Amino acid sequence: MKSFKLSALHTLESMEVPAPVIERGTDVLVRIGAVGVCGSDLHYYTTGRIGDQVVEYPFTVGHECAGTVIQVGSEVTRVAVGDRVAIEPSLSCGSCDQCVAGRENTCRNNLFLGCPGQVEGALAELMVMPETNLFRVGDEVDFGMATFSEPLAIGVYTVQQSQLRQEHAIGLLGMGPIGHSVMLPAIDLGCRAIYCTEKVDARCDKAVEAGAHWAGNVDRDDVVREILSREPAGLDIVYECCGDQRALDQAVELLKPGGRLMIVGIPECDEVSFAPHVMRRKEITIVNVRRQRGCVPAALELIAKYPTHVDRLLTHRFAFADTEAAFDFVEHKRDGVIKAIVEFA
Length: 345
Ligand SMILES: [Zn+2]
Ligand SMILES: [Zn+2]
Known about the structure:
The chain has twelve helices and 19 strands. By secondary structure, the chain is α/β, with parallel strands linked by helices.
């Protein structure tokens, strides 16, 4: 089968590799239909690493994927040949203290698709996954939309962890796919006001179109002053969705006393800083988000409930052969791209 592999920084090469085969009774062979390009894939493409996870070439990235079941192991009951499925990319061990405590997302033996040193990613024609990682999707949801269940599940989980309530005013700093993935469940909950910040004008427009009450460009607007002029008491929750030091500083300024800072973005650097006196005086709670657990079904429900909303976020679709162009588009945020999808013929 064909697979796209990172072979150097900024280089994706199509290679012929052996097709995966079913080894356990609970395994399922899936023909991949679409793969979403994620910010984390892009970190590996542009810098070859996230923290101490370093790519050894050649390596296949990609973890936002969906496809069709083409073969099932002898013990599989959850899906059948021909089913269209969204794939949960995280493989937890089920037996460590974290899994036993119901915290599969911090499993000590976790393997994640397209993570260096763990499992090869989804930018390939075929993939074998355990049946528990597969979620059936209806015919009305195309594969591109189904791949969005991965970032959207993180958004659903983030909103759960943030204890968001309807009366809250919130900030979303960084309106890429994760910013939007947090916004959709917040809209669904009916939260009172949503303020967004971004560096790309087209993304600001998209945020307002999607339901933000206000969106500003951090490179041009004094976003803290603009937001606080509309919410003088400050914001209840700020979701940092871009991994940027400036956004972390703005988040602390924007929050009201007792507010909650949700850190979802992945920074490119290894250390960030906080202003301790402001945080302490306001008694800010900081919550880190590690992917998600158990939120794929809720994400698929949101996709079914808001199809036009989700479709609007899948701004660019590329053929499998043009995978490198998809990465280039996302890296340079060309043409206001939010989510680029690679589709298989
Ligand atoms: Zn992702
Ligand atoms: Zn575990």
